[in-house]
Specification:
Elements (H helix, E strand, L loop, with lengths): L1 H21 L7 E5 L2 E4 H17 L4 E4 L3 E3 L5 E9 L1 H6 L5 E8 L2 E9 L4 E6 L3 E4 L2 E2 L12 E4 L7 H16 L2 E3 L4 H9 L5 E5 L3 H13 L3 E3 L12 E5 L4 H9 L4
Parallel strand pairs: 3-5, 11-12, 11-13
Antiparallel strand pairs: 1-2, 3-4, 5-6, 6-7, 7-8, 8-9, 9-10, 13-15, 14-15
Bound molecules: D-MYO-inositol-1-phosphate and calcium ion (2 copies).
Length: 260
């Protein structure tokens, strides 16, 4: 069952990825949902392709997708879809964007894919069965301490308390690690933690479609995901901390007292 769900997610992500790459030089209309929060007709087209593929096989499943919202049914199954994560990068031709698809049963993510069509990297995970990159098993980095870590983050769109805290954390982590990257696609950031390319990642104010697939990827690669209090993460949390596990406590400590 889970294999078939994963297979459907992969077929949908590849099809959407082909469409996204073909549209790279013809973005259509670019709109602002909020300040610097972009959406293109390619986001909407990609979402349509993905939902069509899901509906072909699972017409009664619920879907929560960024551009069209929630289509709820009586089903215990729900697909959580980000048709392009990293739209700003896509619009500017910066090659760090992806399609993210997770399928849940009663809020538990069973299977997920994140597809980076530019680099042809297909990240996939199944609960209890590991995470893979183009069929190669993934595991988080062995980096034992924060001072040797490369981290990633993203910043909330709006000014406010969490924006100021993000900036303080950036400064703090930048001074105490090998560096901090801000690449602009949270689903891929999480996959890079799963792949051991980053040792940790934190961000405020993400949405379920940004994190649903990536959280499973990190967990199945042997890493840890929590909120900023160290509690088990949910896709509905407005805070996420993901790491290789070894540096998690140290990151939590810095988040609690950013000037430490
Ligand atoms: C955004 C990206 C970005 C994160 C933003 C998200 P979008 O998603 O994941 O890295 O910092 O908060 O909204 O809008 O490109 O799908
Ligand atoms: Ca997103
Ligand atoms: Ca998006």
């Amino acid at each position: 069952m889970t294999e078939t769900l994963l297979e459907t997610a992969e077929i949908a992500a590849r099809k959407a990825g082909r469409y996204i790459m073909a549209s790279i030089s013809d973005l259509g209309q670019v709109d602002e949902k909020g300040r610097a929060n972009l959406v293109t007709s390619v986001d909407r087209g990609s979402e349509k392709i993905i939902i069509t593929e899901i509906r072909k096989r699972y017409p009664d499943h619920a879907v929560l997708a960024e551009e069209s919202g929630a289509a709820s049914t009586q089903s215990d199954f729900r697909w959580v879809v980000d048709p392009i994560d990293g739209t700003t990068n896509f619009v500017h031709g910066y090659p760090f964007f992806c399609v993210s698809i997770a399928v849940q049963k009663k809020e538990e993510t069973l299977a997920a894919v994140v597809f980076d069509p530019f680099h042809d990297e297909m990240f996939r995970a199944m609960r209890g069965k590991g995470a893979f990159l183009n069929h190669k098993p993934l595991s988080v980095s062995p980096t034992p301490q924060l001072s040797d870590a490369l981290l990633a983050t993203g910043f909330p769109y709006r000014d406010g308390q969490s924006w100021r805290h993000s900036m303080a954390l950036f400064q703090n982590f930048y001074a105490s690690t090998h560096g901090v990257r801000r690449d602009g696609a949270a689903a891929l950031d999480l996959c890079y933690v799963a792949a051991g390319r980053f040792d940790g990642f934190w961000e405020y104010d993400l949405n379920p479609w940004d994190v649903a697939a990536g959280i499973l990827m990190v967990q199945e690669a042997g890493g840890k995901t929590t909120d900023f209090q160290g509690q088990t993460s949910s896709i509905h949390d407005k805070q996420i901390l993901a790491s290789n596990g070894h540096i998690h406590a140290a990151m939590l400590e810095s988040i609690r007292s950013p000037s430490a």
